[in-house]
Amino acid sequence: MRAGSKHSRAGRLIEVGIVAAFLLVMLYIASVFVRVSSGYSETVESPDYVVRLQVLNGCGVVGLAARVADRMADYRDGDMEIKVVDTDNFEIRKVVRTFLISRREDLRPAEILAAKLGLDPGEVVFRPLVNNHRQVSATLVLGEDFETIRLPGKSGWE
């Protein structure tokens, strides 16, 4: 009889172990379900405008467009997000004053950017790009006065 009682004890221990493992698995599944169903949400303020910016060097200073693009790349605040999508040289090498061209009929994003740069928003002009494959929404043409424009720094616009 003793041998039978050992088997029943061992059997009970196995049953208790299986039930405990089952309960742990169910608790884990329930906790995952609660996390997924309640979700993790974070409020992210999206900017009013996204500007896909082309930076062109119009004054002939070697590497200027790339340096300015680096300072402006991936800038984001409550008003706008800037994505630099192209840098190149402007067809004219002796541009005296830096200016901004809107590639979209809605001038507002380019005007806001002009104000941030310290340019006159009233001087933003609209000129659409033919074959605008990069979906450029504004073009910044750097002139000989490039040192006077305000660029974003670590703590915002300088």
Low-confidence stretches: none
Biggest sheet overview: 5 strands, mixed
Helix content: 25-40%
CATH architecture of the largest domain: 2-Layer Sandwich
Beta fraction: 15-25%
Overall outline: rod-shaped
Name of the top-level CATH class of the largest domain: Alpha Beta
CATH topology of the largest domain: Alpha-Beta Plaits
Order of helices and strands: HEHEEHEEEE
Largest beta sheet: strand ordering: 2-1-5-3-4
Structural class: alpha/beta
Explain this structure to me?
A hairpin with a 2-residue loop joins strand 6 and strand 7. The chain has a five-stranded mixed beta sheet, covered by helices on one side. It has a two-stranded antiparallel sheet with strand order 6-7. It has two domains: 41 residues; 109 residues, 2-Layer Sandwich (Alpha-Beta Plaits), CATH 3.30.70. It is rod-shaped, with a radius of gyration of 31 Å. 35% of the residues lie in helices and 22% in strands. It contains three helices and seven strands, in the order αβαββαββββ. The termini are far apart. The longest helix is centred in the N-terminal third of the chain and has 37 residues. It has 158 residues and is an alpha/beta fold.
